């Protein structure tokens, strides 16, 4: 039987971020479901910890320049288009390229400039779909919504009855959440994320808690494990996910951007205490709905669509016209605002980040 080669691209593979976890779990699922398959992930930023984790799961994680040149990739899932552009300039060989877009606003997440030549664009939410249709002119007919799914090992019936342990999980924890322990007497609040020491989010980790405060993918994890979840982060959030707001919050990937409701630490603590019993009472019903919405079987649907899709034509990448690196760095020294410097660097991301 002929081996199938699948490549994922991503800019960040050196810490646990939502986009990195998204493609890793997708790769794991494909390995578990399909025979004679080989999966690589290529990134300019790879940590030893994540490389080891990938190896243990049967995934080859490598730096861009270490990617084998003799493979014709059956499917490329191109997250972070600048990586794909860089590899295409290196004579990447392929049959089908699928663009993956996981954010409606991040510069790095923009669709590939040649998206009209690609058969499918995968997005993670209705919000992202609307944005790339309206702003980037991506054809709605080629968009496939693959929301953050719940892996089988996160499907459990956790026993929760009393609020004693809370996990705040985020790589960008707002100040009001850091102050939360002051207003929750006799309740342990643990902070997990890049500022507090990175941990891989696993079922065993989440099962230690009676409440999860987070956004994005961690919300689906908690729903799958029957753990009450409180949506709040840098954008604010709706508070407890319940049967009434689940659909609306899912449209924006449980990001907090549906309501953008900002509260003080004291107000958050009051909402947590007052709404906990209702959240516990709804957790089984929420799990049932979540397992229907966020099933890993959606990946099988996607693969059937890709199988029928036409082969991607040869994509010619024009020679870039960028300022030289040394001049970019000098100019940045004279830009006073960190945000303006970041925006300037984003403009030349293809040239700087893939050096």
Q: How would you describe the overall organization of this protein?
A:
With 355 residues, the chain is α/β, with parallel strands linked by helices. The chain folds into three domains: 4-149 and 297-318, 3-Layer(aba) Sandwich (Rossmann fold), CATH 3.40.50; 152-293, Rossmann fold (3-Layer(aba) Sandwich); 320-355, no CATH class. It has 13 helices and 14 strands. The strands form three sheets. A seven-stranded parallel beta sheet has the order 5-3-1-6-7-8-9, sandwiched between helices. α7 links the parallel β12 and β13. The protein is globular and about 60 Å long.
Spans of at least 5 consecutive residues with low confidence: 349-355
Radius of gyration from the alpha-carbon trace, in angstroms:
21 Å
- If helices are DSSP runs of H or I spanning 4 or more residues, what is the number of helices? 13
CATH topology value of the largest domain:
Rossmann fold
User: Could you tell me how far the N terminus lies from the C terminus, measured between alpha carbons in angstroms?
Assistant: 39 Å
Query: What's the CATH first level of the largest domain?
Result: Alpha Beta
Task: Write down the overall geometry.
Answer: globular
Average residue-wise pLDDT: 91
Task: Based on the coordinates given, report the CATH architecture of the largest domain.
Answer: 3-Layer(aba) Sandwich
Total number of strands: 14
The CATH homologous superfamily of the largest domain is named Glycogen Phosphorylase B
Largest sheet: 7 strands, parallel
Structural class: alpha/beta
Helical amount: 25-40%
In sequence order, what are the helices and strands, one letter per element?
A: EEHEEHEEHEEHEEHEHEHEEHHHHHH
Number of domains: 3
In terms of DSSP E residues, the strand content is 15-25%
State the strand order across the main sheet.
5-3-1-6-7-8-9
């Amino acid at each position: 039987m002929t081996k199938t080669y699948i490549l994922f691209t991503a800019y960040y593979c050196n810490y646990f971020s939502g986009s990195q976890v998204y493609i890793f779990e997708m790769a794991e699922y494909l390995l578990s479901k399909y025979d004679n398959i080989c999966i690589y992930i290529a990134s300019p930023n790879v940590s030893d910890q994540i490389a080891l984790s990938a190896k243990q799961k049967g995934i080859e994680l490598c730096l861009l320049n270490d990617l084998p040149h003799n493979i014709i990739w059956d499917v490329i899932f191109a997250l972070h288009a600048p990586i794909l552009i860089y590899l295409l300039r290196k004579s990447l060989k392929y049959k089908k390229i699928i663009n993956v877009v996981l954010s409606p606003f991040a510069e790095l997440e923009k669709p590939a400039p040649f998206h009209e030549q690609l058969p499918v664009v995968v997005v993670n939410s209705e919000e992202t779909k609307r944005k790339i249709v309206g702003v980037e002119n991506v054809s709605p007919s080629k968009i496939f919504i693959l929301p953050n799914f719940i892996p089988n090992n996160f499907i459990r019936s956790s026993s929760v009855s009393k609020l004693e342990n809370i996990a705040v999980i985020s790589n960008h924890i707002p100040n009001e959440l850091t102050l939360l322990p002051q207003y929750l007497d006799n309740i342990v609040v643990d902070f997990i994320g890049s500022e507090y020491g990175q941990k891989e989010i696993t079922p065993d980790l989440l099962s230690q808690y009676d409440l999860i405060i987070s956004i994005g993918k961690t919300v689906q994890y908690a729903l799958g494990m029957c753990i009450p979840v409180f949506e709040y982060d840098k954008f604010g959030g709706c508070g407890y996910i319940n049967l009434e707001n689940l659909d609306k919050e899912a449209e924006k990937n449980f990001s907090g951007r549906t309501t953008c409701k900002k509260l003080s630490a004291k107000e958050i603590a009051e909402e947590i205490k007052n709404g906990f019993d209702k959240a516990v009472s709804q957790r089984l019903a929420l799990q049932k709905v979540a397992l229907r919405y966020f099933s890993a079987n959606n990946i099988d649907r996607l693969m059937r669509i890709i199988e029928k899709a036409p082969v991607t034509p040869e994509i010619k990448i024009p020679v870039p016209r960028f300022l030289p690196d040394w001049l970019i760095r000098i100019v940045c020294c004279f830009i006073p605002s960190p945000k303006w410097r970041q925006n300037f660097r984003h403009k030349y991301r293809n040239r700087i980040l893939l050096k």
